[in-house]
Write a structure and sequence with these properties.
The complex is a heterotrimer of chains A (276), B (366) and C (268).
Chain A (H helix, E strand, L loop, with lengths): L2 H4 L4 H24 L2 H27 L4 E2 L2 E2 H16 L5 H11 L1 H5 L6 H32 L5 H26 L2 H4 L3 H14 L13 H5 L3 H13 L6 H28 L5
Antiparallel strand pairs in A: 1-2
Helix pairs in contact in A: 2-7, 3-4, 3-7, 4-7, 4-8, 4-12, 5-8, 7-8, 8-10, 8-12, 8-13, 12-13
Chain B lengths: L6 H9 L1 H4 L5 E12 L6 E13 L4 E5 L6 H8 L7 E6 L8 H5 L2 E5 L11 H11 L4 H14 L15 H13 L5 E5 L7 H18 L2 E6 L2 H6 L3 E6 L2 E7 H7 L3 E12 L1 H8 L6 E3 L12 E9 L5 H11 L2 E7 L3 H10 L18
Parallel strand pairs in B: 3-7, 3-8, 5-6, 6-7
Antiparallel strand pairs in B: 1-2, 1-4, 8-9, 10-12, 10-13, 11-12
Chain C lengths: L1 H29 L1 H29 L7 H21 L6 H6 L2 H6 L5 H7 L4 H17 L4 H27 L9 H13 L8 H9 L3 H4 L1 H8 L3 H30 L8
The chains are: A mainly alpha (276), B alpha/beta (366), C mainly alpha (268).
Amino acid sequence: MTASTITAPGRADHARDLGAAYARVAHAAARATRAQPAALAHTGIHYLIVAVAISSLWTRAASGHGGTIVGYRADALVWYLAATEVTAIAPPLRLIDRLGADVATGRFELELLRPAPAVWIRVAAELGTAMPRTAVCTALGAGLALGVGGAPASLAALALAGPALLFGVALTVVAQHLLAAASFWLRDSRASWFLYQKLQFTLGGLVLPLEVLPGGMGRVARFTPFAAMSYAPGRLASGHLEPGWLLAQIGWLAVLGLVTARVFAAGERHLGGGEP
Amino acid sequence: MTASPSLSSSLRRAAGADQTGAAAVIAVADLRRTFSAGRRRNRRTIEAVRGVTFTVEPGERLAFIGPNGAGKSTSIKMLTGLLRPSAGTVRVLGLEPWSERRALSRRIGTLFGQRSLLWGELPARTSLATLGAIHGIDRSGLGRRIDELGELLEATHLFDQAVRTLSLGQRMRCELAAALLHRPQLLFLDEPTIGLDLLAKQRFREVLVRLNTEHGTTVFLTSHDVADVEHVAARAVIVNHGTVIHDSPVAALRRNLLTAKRIEVGLARALTVPEARAALGPDIGPVTPLGSAPGRGEEAPVDGIAIDVDTRRQAIGEVLDRVLQRLAVADVSVADPPLETVIGEIYARPAATPAAGPGPHAGGAP
Amino acid sequence: MRTQRRRRAIVAALRGLGAVWRTAWAEALANRRSFVVQMTVMMVNDLVWIFFWQVFFRRVGSVRGWTVDDMMVLYAILALAAGLVLGALANLRWLGPLVANGDLDSALALPVDPLGFLALRQVSPVNVGDLVFGIGLFLWLGHPTPARLALLAVATAASVAVLAGFLALLGSLAFLPGTAGAGELGLSAVIVFSSYPTDLFGGALRLALFAVVPAALVGSLPAELVQHPSPAGLAGLAGGAAAFAGAGWLSFRLGLRRYTSGAAWTAL
């Protein structure tokens, strides 16, 4: 992508060129990830360890309660957890740490010299990296759920779980970029990473369906982006035909995308000495 | 400083290391090490060291040099007990290194490249005290020893700063202090000057020489830098492809082999090589283009040239004068020849003067 | 005479290793603020898990005979063991990379036991947070009595021995070619599975959690010893601890022999 094509006349041309640039970056990142089968296998095994452990806990709990707990049958819980754990394990590792460090050390500043918006080039690359990882974890998760849980309760809902997983992973990537932006002002984003993990863990329903959360917490959690990240694909995979979750995911992607763009613009102005 | 032994006597001593090796601090006879590399079908055997023999007398300053992959590191690992030889005998301070490694480690000091023994967040003094405790040095003796080393290495002020904040050169002096805590008779250094800037290298080399001349510590260092040999060692052993191809005092080496300097000139105005040669005069050494694509022929003008000077025939200053007067110079530097060139020279003249002739095992060289 | 000299050598060696450990702690504490922050982060992390277990058991009551009380003891022991092994003996976790990067050489050049030296020379503040959390958790929700505290100490010691031995075993894999990455997966497997009651798992997996990835010996069995002490439980745990600690030590020694014999060298 050269500067001249970017500044070509016409907004539509510009947008198309940018889109092509993002696609190319994402494609290259995906190819680089696929080129390391050992690392992909590592991700897959790690996913299986976590998914087997947590799904064993919940299926035993359900079978101790006559087969159903908080409205989920044991097999539905396996499908649920297999899906939510994909959104925890498949996104690229230490994203907030890496981006935060690059912002704090000034490496990110150099990327601002490029003609395309630096943050979206980064998002595209991380999404590209995430895709093969998501594919591996999803395949293993489906295998685990079929083997341990059994046939899915609703094929239609399961069909929606596929895009929901992709949107969920995309949401984690955008949200992590947003939190890493703390480095513009704090020079350190490790606390953001930590905060993010804990919020996804609890409000995202990563290891327990939101219905289990005490009091109104579960109801509130449904209206956070974390629920859209993890709970949404879990809910669909466990046989609940609730297409509204896909809309919620798209909505949150739009909102977080907008906020991220604003925050990075402010951060870049901050780097530039406060001048717009 | 004792003169290095003649080859025949070192051979004799190495062969009978067990009987007469008491005087030698290192006696190596026909040392060999093979590795097998590759998996199953294409497994092959690599001879990293193939028949190295030499002895080192107390108080010597010896540089064990060779290009990457020559067998230097493998050899120093066998001398310090980290690696068991495939064949041959080694005695270091009368001990067999690999079977008596712990006992040997109490009597030798080692500095392996850039590997650190120090705790980064703490002042070096704390690390030195800890390593002193490992060596079993009592507390009062330890304090005195650290002061002594601070003075010797001009590092007293460094000992109280967090190691992390030191420059590489400063840190290497602290690492050296750690290697010397227990007053070793013999110091092994594996590529100690790698990565140091020019000034730090020079300072480190001076310290090694002083350690040797003032305290009598035997110094054995490996390097692939010709300057380390010139500025530290009194004796040079050159290895290539796992064999010793040269063993002589450095003075002899300098007289016979380190006779070339290379002047690199960046030109303010591009010239062809023949033009440059004509400008410099017919008695100048070989002139070659710098950094240009080969195969373009001599007729293409270039931005830089290299001149190889034989310092036995021509003073380097005289050639430099001529370069500065007759060419439009943008930049100029003088360098030692790379080790590979020196080694090429050794192979090129098999029957030089006896003192600087190839070692007894040169026959095995390819 | 000889035994006396031997004893003196052992005392001197222990004194040296003690100095190394003190220095490692001093280094971890050198930046006091960062130490506290990192510790706190881990403690909040542990707290979120406690929240999870509390919510879970409030809804479920018990699972396969495990109650919330059992689970709190399990988590306390796991936190203590992780704190002591991953925190205070931090390098055991990085043994593989240390071996692969040649850091072993500098340890071998010292008159000291190389495994002990490497294990003790670094303290990780993050996991020290686990240590503090484990103590706090047991005092808070573990129904502490002097007898139970004594049992906790024994159970934790066994858990530490198993975990340390297992990490040494994993690290020693680095002496063999083509085992990169196994260490990290092994660690995540043992930590993840030991934070759940082993009774949840059946078949081959259950067997593996005793014999291959000893998660059962790190979490569940020590917790059962505190909750339902029995001579058989103690004997089983002690046997497992001795087996894994011994296997870790032995594998490192064998690996070291392979290393110095040059067989571990794939390149020059």
